[in-house]
Design brief:
Chain B: GO terms for molecular function: hydrolase activity. The complex is a heterodimer of chains A (40) and B (180). With 40 residues, chain A is mainly alpha-helical. Chain A is built from 2 helices and no strands. Chain B contains 3 helices and 9 strands.
Chain lengths: 40, 180
């Protein structure tokens, strides 16, 4: 399925159901973190 | 973006030190609303500040040489895949203790079924959500965490208060399939 079709909104679903699908598609995983400033 | 640490002298003469300020470009947020179907076009995007995806409005920074209105039109098309007539709702400071930026909120009248492919930047990953405004409004009024994004709350309430949304759409309707 093309990215365009895959991302077409599924308007037959409720807000919560669409969010669950969307959340799975756009979740990121933290790979690293660097503190620019640490207030004592 | 620039992160700076400011020292101040308070009004009473006492030094106040090490206040972090985050300088970012001004940005726009757009509430796309279909006046025929009563649907809003929202997006879902990962937010690294809170480490989770959120439902929010199409939004983005005002690029150099752009007006806020031009930026709103671009972000609406690029992130949500829709186009339409745009009206200003309100300009606000968002978290003004830390951020220097101004946030321009807009309303757009769109055809939610005239969805075109997004034009995302390389570092963007965004899903589109189309839902009845009544369902979103109900979630906001019931403090549903689904609608925890500040701009989404403000824009929906501003749009209702400004008369941009027919009150008949604010009662949650049965979800019916529209053009796929």
């Amino acid at each position: 399925m093309s990215a365009e079709l895959e991302n077409k909104p599924k308007t037959s679903l409720s807000l919560a159901e669409q969010f669950k699908l969307a959340r799975d598609r756009v979740s990121w995983t933290l790979q690293g973190e660097q503190a620019l400033y640490n207030r004592p | 973006m620039r992160i700076v640490i400011n020292d101040f002298i308070r009004a009473d003469g006492i030094p106040a030190k090490e206040f972090v300020k985050i300088e970012t470009p001004d940005y726009v947020e757009v509430l796309p609303f279909d006046r025929t179907t009563g649907e809003v076009v929202l997006i879902c995007q990962f937010h690294w500040g809170v480490g989770a995806p959120l439902i929010k409005l199409p939004a983005g920074k005002v690029k150099s040489g752009q007006s806020p209105l031009q930026a709103a039109r671009s972000e609406l098309r690029e992130e949500a895949g829709v186009e339409g007539e745009i009206f200003p709702l309100k300009t606000v400071y968002d978290i003004p203790m830390w951020y220097s930026a101004t946030a321009h909120h807009f309303m757009a009248f769109v055809d939610a079924n005239e969805y075109a492919a997004q034009r995302l930047d390389e570092d963007e990953e965004i899903a589109v959500i189309v839902a009845p405004i009544g369902e979103v409004y109900k979630a906001i009024m019931e403090r549903d965490p689904l609608t925890s994004d500040t701009a989404l709350n403000l824009a929906v309430l501003f749009a209702i208060q400004s008369g941009f949304i027919d009150p008949k759409f604010l009662t949650p309707q049965e979800v019916t399939p529209t053009q796929e």
